[in-house]
UniProtKB/TrEMBL annotation, chains A, B:
Binding site for (R)-pantoate: Q65, Q157
Protein name: Pantothenate synthetase
EC id: 6.3.2.1
Job description of the protein: Catalyzes the condensation of pantoate with beta-alanine in an ATP-dependent reaction via a pantoyl-adenylate intermediate.
Similarity field: Belongs to the pantothenate synthetase family.
Localization of this protein: Cytoplasm
Main location: cytoplasm
Keyword annotations: ATP-binding, Cytoplasm, Ligase, Nucleotide-binding, Pantothenate biosynthesis
Quaternary structure annotation from Swiss-Prot or TrEMBL: Homodimer.
Active site: H41
Annotated binding of beta-alanine, by residue: Q65
Enzyme class: ligase
Length: 299, 299
């Protein structure tokens, strides 16, 4: 495994790996992360290792996707541990640029995906997704991967990036990978380290609310969008520390909102239930996808 | 020369050309155009032929860079003549997509370059450069060229695209090529066909104003930005049909405006004088670059 910190060396290394194949196909897989890696990231690296000849991991806490009052400065970092984990997972190239390498001057260019970014985290975190699409496009242009692996915990991010790739004809395939959870159900996140013991305990309500919602839909206990939302809010409300940012039931990947009175079994698309809830100063997100067949199961 | 009209065949053809080189460097040169080709475009193809192994010409009248009251529908088109010219200039691949091929659905993704796009044609044509950067990024992603050739008649376009490439780390080098003019000085443009005989005659005032401005600067006849602007406006004013959209003196490639009282010989950057002037319903642009050394010549 080699560690690269500048763009010229990165480009040259990838070029050499492709050239060495003498015209044969070399699949380059990219796993873009902000570091402080956990088993969720490990699952992305494993998927990349399985599907690619060359696995590139990028570690970069991207300032332009953080709002002015968000946790850019305090975002957890541990390069040594990250490198050990990457090595263990068989990563070939780790790209760890500084902010100055990625943004030598203030960037005048932004990529905006409209519509998809207006709801969920896009509404709570204005400008967040412009920062994500812009930095991911930069990483794509630097690495020129064939495949790029993203976790479904950031489901909106996956939908937004897929839209960007499609609209801009980017020569890369986005591979969404399943959410990885602790045994007790908490979705893995680098931000979980912020949680106090009590918050960590109460945060379990998120995965529980999602599981119960799924059962209620597949069993037909809830029939309308509004009932589903009410049940989710009630479950989350049982946690005294939970402060709801949003509870949304949308189509996936289009992220279109649904009429509150709509009957779930008349919806002819996959759905996503997405939550963002604060526990103390820590904002957690989680989601579950309901496939069309699942939503219609109780009919 | 082969003509390709869909994206999958284009990608495959480029891939094959690169693969055939068995790991050796293949320089792919792209000349993006809106067709109705003239000698200005031919000069781009010749530059591309000289510097590239594979020359790709794209012909696409891009709807999203036209405003609602602009000339998208009437923009001149002549595919047969364009193909003959491309063949003559040694183009390898011509890519001629339809609007449906480039935009299968409404695009949700836009690339915006701020600052550089707020003046000149960006001010007169709101949204124009978002359309240009977006379609050029799409073409770059489809062709993956090493070099891309653009005429300096659209100097602001060159500056904006260079900024985009730099900010997004696009793996392509923008090659600006000199303006090509008719013998009498009129800058070549597909839109020149719109001009009546009288308008065509009067449009010569643009290149004359730029030439006279250049002489005035290099000889020291005008000393301040304001004097230079006044002289340009006076010269253009001698044409009864000319309706000035803008006369701008800016730094290049930063396109920063200058204080009107500034002494030209104190400016430590290259400059550009850029004009947009309407003759009847036809809006023409032209420009001249003044290198720092030229501006300081009379000191």
């Amino acid at each position: 495994m080699i560690v690269i910190r500048d763009t010229a060396t990165l480009r040259e290394e990838i070029k050499q790996r492709r050239r060495a194949a003498l015209g044969a196909d070399v699949q380059v897989g990219l796993v873009p992360t902000m570091g402080y890696l956990h088993d969720g990231h490990a699952s992305l690296m494993r998927a990349a290792r399985k599907q690619s000849d060359v696995v590139v991991l990028s570690i970069f806490v991207n300032p332009i996707q953080f709002g002015p009052n968000e946790d850019f400065d305090s975002y957890p970092r541990d390069e040594e541990r990250d490198l050990a984990l990457a090595e263990r997972e068989g990563v070939d190239i780790v790209f760890i640029p500084t902010v100055e390498v990625m943004y030598p001057g203030p960037t005048k260019t932004k990529i905006q995906v409209s519509g998809l970014t207006s709801r969920l985290c896009g509404a709570s975190r204005p400008g967040h997704f412009d920062g994500v699409t812009t930095v991911v496009a930069k990483l794509f242009n630097l690495v020129q991967p064939d495949l790029a692996f993203f976790g479904m915990k950031d489901a909106q991010q996956v939908a937004v990036l897929q839209q960007m790739v499609q609209d801009l004809n980017m020569p890369v395939h986005i591979v969404p990978c399943p959410i990885v959870r602790e045994e007790d159900g908490l979705a893995l996140s680098s931000r979980n380290v912020y949680l106090s013991e009590e918050e960590r305990e109460q945060a379990l309500v998120l995965s529980r609310a999602l599981r119960e919602a799924e059962s209620a839909v597949t069993s037909g206990t809830v029939k309308q969008v509004t009932d589903l939302r009410r049940q989710l809010e009630q479950t989350i409300g049982t946690s005294s520390l939970a402060l709801i940012d949003y509870v949304e039931i949308l189509t996936f990947p289009g992220l279109e909102p649904l009429d509150e009175n709509m009957l779930l079994n008349t919806i002819d698309q996959d759905l996503i239930i997405a939550l963002a809830v604060k526990f103390g100063r820590t904002r957690l997100i989680d989601n579950i996808r309901l496939q069309k067949a699942e939503v219609h199961a109780y009919v």
